[in-house]
Amino acid sequence: MFPQPLQELSQNLKKIPGIGQKSSQKLALDLLQLTNEQYNELIINLQEARDKVDFCQECGFFCEGRMCVFCSSRVRDYSQICLVEKPTDLIPLEKSEIYRGVYHVLIKLISPLDNVFPEHTNVNKLISRIEEQLTEKGSKEIELVLFLKPSFSADTTIAYIRDILSSRGLLDKVKLTRLATGLPLYYNTDTIDQATIVRAFEDRK
Ligand SMILES: [Zn+2]
To answer: How far apart are CA 96 and CA 127, in angstroms?
Structure first.
């Protein structure tokens, strides 16, 4: 029914995670409503985002340049590291403004049954980061705040971190805490309300 270029645009938009047949078609049609100027600006934006946005070499969050806003901050507490799975998982905690430490994005959780081993995750970088913070950067203790959805692979990942820290004699200097009950078991980081996050963070154990 639609001209070929429009169909192709719709097909391409469908490659974006979370965009299905219907929304890709709607999006393609909506894009046609833009003025030439808006359209050109969008194209430039897309290219710029592609060229300039990268992952922080320190923590794995999005950044422009080498390091993200958290890792390059002068006011953040580097002895408090919050562990999340995906970059977007940290957004609700950050928005709640209760947390002033830094983050570490694992990208993936360890899951040997799915062939995901430590080297496929950002976990070894975390260990070296903790080590560096305790030695060169002089922190006496690190608090590792676990902000992971409960799952078998989350447990496996935490067990691995404990083992490595223990084998390097660092476990007594790392306090592992997790956000308290009050967080629903399968919370959605997009929709969880800030009061719940603040309470869960304050009551972390
Ligand atoms: Zn960072």
So the answer is: 27
